[in-house]
C-alpha cells in the first residue's frame, strides 16, 4: 500500500520567518507529523552540510532524532540524500582534495551514513539531481561528477547497497514528473546501469509543481516505463505552489486548482504498480521552502498555518 510521507522541516533552512526549529519547538506540528503520515523524510537534516560540520566529524543528532521519532510512531523513513551538487559543506567544496581523496571521502560518508540507519531506512535518495533541465549531466556543477567522472554514479549505488542491502536505492530529481528529455535521460542511464548489474532499485520524481505551469498529465506513463525496467517509483517532494502577489490570499479558484493537482498526483501514484511512496515536502506554509525560494509564490502545502485543512487535504483523502 501507498505510504504517505512528509518532509520534517528544520535544519535551519529557508523558513520564511525566524521560527524556532519546528521539529523540536512546535509540539502541535509534531503531532500532525505523527498522526497524518506513515513515512518521513528529513528536509535538510541528512544532507552533507548538516551531517558533516568538519572533514573528520559527523553530527547525527538531528537525523537520529527524526529516526527515533519515526520508529516511535511506526513510520518508515526515506533517506535524503548522499550525492548532490547542493548543500555541501564549504570544507568540501572549497577544499583542495585530489580525486583519490574525494573518492575516499564519498565512499566513507556513504558507508557511515547508510550503515548507521541500515535496517531502518525504507528508501534512500542515493543520487540527487544529476541532470540539469537540458538533460545534460551536471559535469561542472556537481563536485563528484566533475572531479571523479560519471562512473562515480554506479559506485554510489554499490557502496550504499553494501552498507544496507535492504534499503531501496533511488535516483531522485525535479521536472521529471512526465515524459520529457530529462526523464528520458534517466531512463537511458538506468537501463545502462541495470545492464551492468548496478543495484539501482528506484526512480523518483520530486513533484515540485506550480499551478502557473500546468499539470504534467503523463505521470503514470512516465513512472510506468521505469516500472517496466523493474524499478520501484515514488513521488518524494510534492508541493503545489501558486502566485501570491505580496500579501494576497489565495483565491478559491486557486485552491481548487491546487486540490486538483494533489488529487491527480495521488491518483497517478495509486495507478502505477511499484509506486509505494508519496511524500509531501512540508505540510504547513509557514515552514515551507516555497516562499523563500520562489518569490511571489506560496500556499503550496495542504494545511493552513492554524492546522485547518485546505481543499487539497480532502482531495488527497478522496483519492486514497
Ligand atoms: C530544500 C529544502 O526544502 C530547503 O529547506 C533548503 O534550504 C534547500 O533544499 N530538491 C531537493 C530538496 O532534493 O532537498 C530541496 O530541499 C528542494 C529541491
From TrEMBL:
Protein name per the record: Beta-xylanase
High-level lineage: Bacteria, Bacillati, Actinomycetota, Actinomycetes, Micrococcales
Keywords: Carbohydrate metabolism, Glycosidase, Hydrolase, Polysaccharide degradation, Signal, Xylan degradation
Recorded catalytic activity of this chain's protein: Endohydrolysis of (1->4)-beta-D-xylosidic linkages in xylans
Hydrolase listed as a keyword: yes
Coiled coil: none
Protein family per UniProt: Belongs to the glycosyl hydrolase 10 (cellulase F) family.
Organism: Brachybacterium avium
Record-annotated GH10 domain positions: 9-319
EC number: 3.2.1.8
Key word Glycoprotein present: no
GO biological process: xylan catabolic process
Molecular functions per Gene Ontology: endo-1,4-beta-xylanase activity
Amino acid at each position: 500500500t501507498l505510504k504517505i510521507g512528509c518532509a520534517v522541516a528544520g535544519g535551519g533552512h529557508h523558513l520564511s520567518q525566524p521560527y524556532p526549529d519546528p521539529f523540536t519547538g512546535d509540539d502541535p506540528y509534531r503531532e500532525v507529523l505523527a498522526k497524518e503520515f506513515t513515512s518521513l523524510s528529513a528536509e535538510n537534516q541528512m544532507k552533507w552540510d548538516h551531517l558533516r560540520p568538519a572533514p573528520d566529524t559527523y553530527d547525527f543528532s538531528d537525523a537520529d532524532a527524526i529516526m527515533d521519532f519515526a520508529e516511535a510512531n511506526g513510520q518508515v523513513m526515506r533517506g535524503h540524500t548522499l550525492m548532490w551538487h547542493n548543500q555541501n559543506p564549504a570544507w568540501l567544496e572549497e577544499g583542495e582534495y585530489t580525486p583519490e581523496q574525494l573518492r575516499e571521502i564519498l565512499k566513507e560518508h556513504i558507508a557511515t551514513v547508510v550503515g548507521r540507519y541500515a535496517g531502518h531506512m525504507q528508501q534512500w535518495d542515493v543520487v540527487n539531481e544529476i541532470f540539469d533541465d537540458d538533460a545534460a549531466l551536471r559535469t561542472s556543477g556537481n563536485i563528484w561528477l566533475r572531479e571523479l567522472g560519471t562512473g562515480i554514479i554506479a559506485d554510489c549505488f554499490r557502496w550504499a547497497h553494501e552498507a544496507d542491502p535492504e534499503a531501496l536505492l533511488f535516483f531522485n530529481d525535479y521536472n521529471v514528473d512526465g515524459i520529457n528529455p530529462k526523464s528520458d535521460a534517466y531512463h537511458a542511464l538506468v537501463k545502462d546501469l541495470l545492464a551492468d548489474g548496478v543495484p539501482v532499485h528506484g526512480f523518483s520524481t520530486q513533484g515540485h509543481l506550480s499551478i502557473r505551469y500546468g499539470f504534467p498529465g503523463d505521470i503514470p506513463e512516465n513512472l510506468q516505463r521505469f516500472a517496466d525496467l523493474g524499478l520501484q517509483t515514488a513521488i518524494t517532494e510534492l508541493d503545489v505552489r501558486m502566485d501570491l502577489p505580496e500579501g494576497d490570499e489565495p483565491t478559491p479558484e486557486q485552491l481548487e486548482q491546487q486540490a486538483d493537482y494533489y488529487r491527480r498526483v495521488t491518483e497517478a501514484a495509486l495507478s502505477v504498480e511499484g509506486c509505494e511512496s508519496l511524500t509531501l515536502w512540508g505540510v504547513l506554509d509557514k515552514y515551507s521552502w516555497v516562499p523563500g525560494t520562489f518569490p511571489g509564490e506560496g500556499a503550496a502545502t495542504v494545511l493552513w498555518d492554524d492546522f485547518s485543512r485546505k481543499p487539497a487535504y480532502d482531495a488527497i483523502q478522496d483519492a486514497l
